[in-house]
Each structure stands twice: as structure tokens, then as C-alpha cells.
Amino acid sequence: MSATVLGPDGELRCGWCSAAPEFFDYHDNEWGYPVDNDIRLFEKLCLESFQSGLSWRTILAKRENFRAAFSNFDFNVVAKYNDADIDRLLKDEGIVRHRGKIEAVINNANKAIELVEREGSLAAYFWRFEPDEKSLPEPQTASTSEESTALSKALKKQGWKFVGPTTVYAFMQAMGLINDHAEGCVFRKKIEHARSHFRRPGRV
């Protein structure tokens, strides 16, 4: 896949957009913009865990179904899910019916509550792992990093599940902790502008 591809407006986008028509909207309006909302951060980490072994196109197509099934990923609600909820989710054809991943979301919701109690917010904690831009590899040449490995290990130590370094790196790309838009992509500068004006949570 080439580094860039022409978008519908004739401007260059990241090459992966060519894999599916719906990727252009996701790329232009979501991917890489910095996020400090705890629910959105939790949702994305959960969806990335569901993607493991699958394609993002599959997950993106089912995202609204996931949101409906998991109470819009409000971890305060999901943490209270019980065996009846697991059975309900395993019968839901609109999502990925993987018991281990479903149980991981519920487990991680409980761990998210604990983390918020200790750190104030998920955002304040996750953004501590934002890498120094000078240490980043060339855009879209890596699937893990020192920081994604460190965050993965930290979360696993706290009891989170399905949060390996690759999953965490994809989460960091999407949530704007790094700007991994390709050189030449028209959105690389737009994301950098958004990141430069973004107030990092938990910092004075």
C-alpha cells in the first residue's frame, strides 16, 4: 500500500484510506485528533481489543452496534454487567461475539473506575505516556513503541486485559497521542495544529 492516496476532493490522504470507502470519513474526522474524554478513550481501547485478529473495517461497521450493546461504553455502567449481560452479548449478532473479549470489557470497566479514583481521569493517566515527537519513527512504519509497551505493561499490572502493545499503539495513533498521518497527507498538518492547541489533561 502506498503512503498516500487521492481522496474524494483530490487531496492526498494516508494510503490505508483506500482499503474501504468509509475510511475517508473516519480518517478525516476522527483519526489522530487528540482526545481527553474518558468515555471515548475507554471505547476506543475496547474496540481496539475487539479488533485483535480482525480488520478495523469490521469493527467500524459494527461500532454503533457495539455502542448500543455496551451502554455507549460508559464504564460506570458496564462495570455492573453480570452473567445475564454476558449471555445477552454473546447472542448479539451485531457485535463480535468473543467471550474473552466481552469479559475483558467488563473487567476493564472496573479497572477504569479504579484508575479514575487514583488518577482523577483516564485521560490524565493515558496522556502521561505521550511520546517525545523527536523519538518517533517515520509515520506508519511501526506497530508498537517504547511508550505503547510501557502503557500496556502498566495497564496489565493493574489487571486490565487484551491491552497488548500493538493494541495500545493503535489506540495512541487514533486518540492523538501521536501524529502518525503519512508525510504528504493533507491531514498531517491539521492534526499537528490540533495537537499544538490541545491542553494535556492533568498538566498545569
UniProtKB/TrEMBL annotation:
The record's keywords, sorted A to Z, are: Metal-binding, Zinc
Q: Pfam family of this protein, just one?
A: Adenine_glyco
- GO BP terms in the entry: base-excision repair
Binding annotation for Zn(2+): 14, 27, 181, 185
The question of whether Kinase is a record keyword is answered with no
Name the domain of life this protein comes from. Answer: Bacteria
GO terms of molecular function: DNA-3-methyladenine glycosylase activity; metal ion binding
**Stored PANTHER family:** DNA-3-METHYLADENINE GLYCOSYLASE 1, DNA-3-METHYLADENINE GLYCOSYLASE I
Q: What is this protein called?
A: DNA-3-methyladenine glycosylase I
